[in-house]
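Recall the central idea of this unit: under ordinary conditions, the amino acid sequence of a chain determines the structure it adopts. In this exercise we apply that idea directly, starting from the sequence alone.
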Amino acid sequence: MRRNLSIRTARRIAATVGIFILSLAIRLYFIDETSIMPDEPIYVEAGRMYVEGFRKLDFSYDVWRFNAEHPPVAKLLIGLTQLSFHGILGGDIHALYLSARIAPAIVGSLIPLSIYILGSSIYGEITCFITGLTVALSPWMVYHSTLATLDIFASFFTTLSFLTLYYVKPDNRMHIPLGIFSGLAIGSKGTAIICFTGILVYCVLIYIFEEERKYIGRLFVKLAISIAISILTFIAIWPWLWPDPLRRGLWVLGFHASHMARGHTTFYAGNVYTHVPPWIPVYVISVKNPIATILSIILYVGYAVEALLKRKRSRGDLLTISWLSGGITTYALFPRIIGDHYILPLASAVYLSSIYVAVTMAKDEGTIRRVLGFFLVISTIASLGFGLYRYRESPGAYVSEIIVRGDEAIIMIDTGYEDTADYMAGILPRDRIIVVATPYSPSILEIDLRRKGLESVVAVGMDSIDYADYVSIPILYARRYGIPKVVLDRFRLIYTVTSGNTMLTYIFEANKTTES
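Accordingly, the structure predicted from this sequence is:
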């Protein structure tokens, strides 16, 4: 008995270490392969300021008002690795972003680990090991784990919140870590508000389907307390709120309500939207995941409906249903979903539900269901592995196998500037200053040019196009606003940055008549 226990413990430790090392190795391998994402300079600078503020115990308005529309947890973690590794990695602009990206790489690697450790008692060890493997391999998750942005942090703490929710009972104190994790999730990015939605949906499902009614009232009290704890956690980790939590909190809510009302130009399924339709969350999930995963989710929906109707559900089923339905419903109400990163807090639920139903079918006594279950598990892992191989061409452009042109299906938040700098390094003369104009974030293009050692190349905005030798138009811009007429009239297309069939950036050269 003792020997079997030790073997099982050793196996679980090996699986835990293996998942984490695999996940971290993949993310560190790709950490320097992506263009600077448009929001990264803001979060990198905010992280530096916030960490310095804590180091000097400076909680003044001047420090914390920068990027005050977003809460600070993710930026603080970005700032910590920036502080720790910037000097070690060289101290230049390249090292600045590389060191900032270490934080999301580590946090992204903790997601599969948390699924395996916390989820095994809920869904089974095999299910959670395979799910951890899929999260480790997922190009969708890997990409956002290599950017110094907020979304992977929100995804991590959301995953911890929902898995902890399962363990909250009337006679324990698990509502306390639940409140802390959900507070940290929303403290990373507001899209993690699905933690609250999920808790409310879970309460409804427990009330409808739980047979032990005498404990429900006490459970609901614990969950209500957890929401209060999350709000207090949210305030405690944000020094900008401390002087006037109510007024400044209302300002943040008003800021985002105003953004929702105004909308934001984005691109999905061949159309430009200012306010996206409610089907976008489901669409993003279907575009950013393999066919096998989508098929498994469809089967899971059928399984979940059958389990609820026949009242053969488990609390694990109720948890997953709360996570998926609460999250998708919440995001369907968001009229402003700029890109696939907004949906990232749902990613763990997507992989858990798809692998859970596949493993359940693989254990079935029926031959057909068993074969289909094994096929779904194997094809999911194989598809993600192949997707990761394709990912090397250009990380931000990964889409499912059925999408021929990713840039015609979904907004590409990858500017393609890193590949643009690579191309220009091979064609530009080194004996004179070259000017490259772009209508989208010239400061980011300049950072990527410096990363490639192009010190004599200057990036400018379109207001200085008269001086430009070249123009770079990211698909991120072109799909939403088109290519400016001045570019079409005075420049010629010389190169298109692509990832497979997916376009990322157009590069134009000034006509010779213009130069003269």
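The longest strand covers residues 491-499.
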